[in-house]
Amino acid sequence: MTSSLTTAPPRRRFAGIAGGARQYGIVAALVVIVAFFQFTTGGRLLQPNNVTSLIQQNAYVLVLAVGMLMIIVAGHIDLSVGSVVAAVGGVIGIMLADHGVSPWIVVVSALAVGALIGAWQGFWVAFVGIPAFIVTLAGMLVFRGVALVLVGYTRAGFPGGFLAISNDGVAGMTGFVGQLDAFTLVAGAVGIGGIIVTSLRTRALRARHGLALESPKVLVARLVLICALIAVLTYWIALSALGLPYVLVIVGVIIVVYAWLMGNTVFGRHVYAIGGNLSAAKLSGVNTRKVNFWLFVNMGLLCGVTAIIVTSRSGAALAAAGVNYELDAIAACFIGGAAVTGGVGRVLGAVVGALIMGVLNMGLSILGVDPSWQFVIKGMVLLLAVAFDMVGKLRSSQTS
């Protein structure tokens, strides 16, 4: 077995190179955007406290983008996530403010309500056969109405333990190394080690199955780049007032679990199969109804997680919460390399797409750009990202 892509057939070899190039291009775009705003804001973008604020403010889109990526890969779309977040947030507000329920019970209840809503929508998509676009469009209206009914007035006055989920961090928990939070440094080192071990194991597994491999030089360059970015991010966060935010721990666990789920399980392969070629997936014995149903249950569950994060962050339950969240999540997925036609996309790509959106938001806000123009700029970024994907596919088909 050689250590290059030459072990794969020409078409698969080119697809692997093109797919890798897209992923590297997305990361490069993020680095360029960060560098641009770091320069134009006079270094304010990457001040330690701004880095933690960036994570806290955009945790919602990072979580939703993970679930939305799975939906898009399977060839669907979910337009209801913002309304579902608002509805579940209303449940959280009533339980905490009106009835004084324990925050732990509230968290479990929010996850259960989100999953039930996802099961409701999944039933119509998977077993009745109504297109997801229509089901979730209806859900967007239904659950926004539910949110308005539940939160007739703003609910606030939540206990500190619940507010800490999105507003506090681990700073000082295990002491400091100079000015750097020790726990954050350890977490960053563990993350770097985990990425290296996972990458090497994945490469070994692909080699055993005779799949295409990137060259050792590319592998080393990729790992050095990713590890360097994590190391720098860890340093900035360790310098911040909060240290490692609790919400980043939540988001990090979700990203790791779902990246593994989509890349290393039968369920993940079935999701890609359904989005790539539905007829072939059915002929191969994939239970498409079951997979589609659980995709929407999962999306509802992640909406519950997002509702917890957003309600904790704002310290109140609002009927207007979650507006345009579905657009942010969808944009993050497409910017991160997901295909409009389904079957293509990675969790880490969606995460990078979400970070690009977050950096644009913060950078433009620091520069004082009018909110109206911020919408214009983000819309153009989304359009260019999809156009880039379509051009890449056209060149790929012509070459193969």
From TrEMBL:
The keyword Flavoprotein does not apply. It comes from the Bacteria. GO terms for molecular function: transmembrane transporter activity. InterPro entries: ABC_transp_permease. It is a multi-pass membrane protein. Its main location: membrane. Keywords: Cell inner membrane, Cell membrane, Membrane, Sugar transport, Transmembrane, Transmembrane helix, Transport. It is found in: Cell membrane. The chain crosses the membrane at residues 21-39, 59-92, 104-124, 130-151, 182-200, 220-238, 244-261, 291-310, 316-340, 347-367, 373-391. The keyword Ubl conjugation does not apply. Pfam families: BPD_transp_2 (PF02653). One of its GO terms (cellular component) is plasma membrane. Part of the binding-protein-dependent transport system for D-xylose. Probably responsible for the translocation of the substrate across the membrane. This is Xylose transport system permease protein XylH.
